[in-house]
User: Fold DNA mismatch repair proteins mutS family domain-containing protein from Mangrovactinospora gilvigrisea.
Amino acid sequence: MDVRLLHSDREFAPDTADRPLAHSGDLTDDLELDTLLAAMDPPDEAAAATARAALLAPLRTPDEIRYRQRVHADALAHESAVRELHTLAADALERERRLSIVLYPTPESVLRRAVNSLDVLTERLRALRRLAARLAAQDGWASEGFTGLFAELDGEVDDDWFREVARHLKELQFRRGILLSARLGDGGRATELALGRPDPDAPDPADRKPARRFPLGPRRPDTLSFTLPENDDRNAKALEELRDRGLNSVADAVATAADHLRDWFAALHRELGFHLCLLNLRKRLADRGLPLCTPEPLQPGTAALAARDLYDPGLALTADASTAITRNDVEAGGAPLILVTGANQGGKSTFLRSVGTAQLLLQCGAFAPAAEFRAEVRTGLFTHYRRREDATMTHGKLEEELARMSGIADVLAPGALLLCNESFAATNEREGSEIAREILTALTASGVRIVFVTHLFALADGFGGDADAVRLRAERRDDGTRTFRIVPGDPLPTSHGEDVYKRVFGTAGAAPHP
Assistant:
């Protein structure tokens, strides 16, 4: 059986197939994803790790995204059922974890631990099958993920399967002893050891009656036997080694079976935990009265980006409840370059985070922080933000920015999305604009879409006649107040820093001139 609540054809694999994006650390910091992840209120560490891994390992096709969206829609419609399933999976793992740990593994100790593990896990699997049968009877399950899970539990592990497993586990306790067959090899050594099945009619040692003190007549054993004398350590060790050799292959097989069942429960636990994290985040945002939608993933090459009432969920989660959260409408069409200019502290960085976060949530199969959101599925998502001065003085600011952009360019592929926030502003406007223009031209020609926030007027104005560039601007009223909305608009030669000066120092004075 496979758990398929995140992928249609396999389990979620954060260490192999679902590795995070390159430069995911910068992406996490720049988009403030830790705020988002904390708001998911993960039920346990496994859910937290899965939510982080899934967010940073975007799905690459619309079909994959829609599959996960359908599973999450079922989770939303049957939240209490999903929580029941998650609790049972967590209980199975905890019960198995509490079993004794094999400190000095021998075939016998490994076998005993594996048998106990299978005993615990199959009992929990039986309980899960009963729960799944009850939940499957509820109306409304539509996703392939959940209906497939219920069908497998009903069809692949039926009552006959459980009876067969119980019989094998009882035999593997070897309460009637161990039966080994072998051939004599060179020097009289046993070779080709094979573990046999004990006589089912042999008495169980636990059922034996105490020996009679005065037996009636001599006993005639059916087989040749011998008993080691006490303190015969050498032969006792030889017998123990013979026993271990006979049990070795069986111990490996049973341990593998136990690992497989434990891993299945762990996968179920992780993938259910991911959907619970999304449900918790959804509730936090909905409680603030903010819109949420099922975003529309578009085929790579469509080059579309459109949103209505798009907002930054990180800001919504940290702002005071009385603070109104600004929402923006975007219609970028197929333009490979979106330039965002305008007043300082006007909402440009917040807008950039909202675009990046919405794209990530879309490609992890979740909802989007908007009333409507549709976007092309991207091959990757990267950020290039200004950094503070290098405390070690190893690099100058411009050198550091260029080195970081070079590292991003090494892994960028056509179809990627790059978010830049005040990049190359560490030098003068003429040089910064020229550097940025060359990089933007080369990357967009390679099929990379870029959203570029900048106060470099020469750069933004230089793309004025470019039909492939969308130019947006942070809105500012005539009295200097910011609406924090991003609207279509040409760049202005000022960022209105004087507004900030007046707000801080008062309106009576004027900003000093150099």
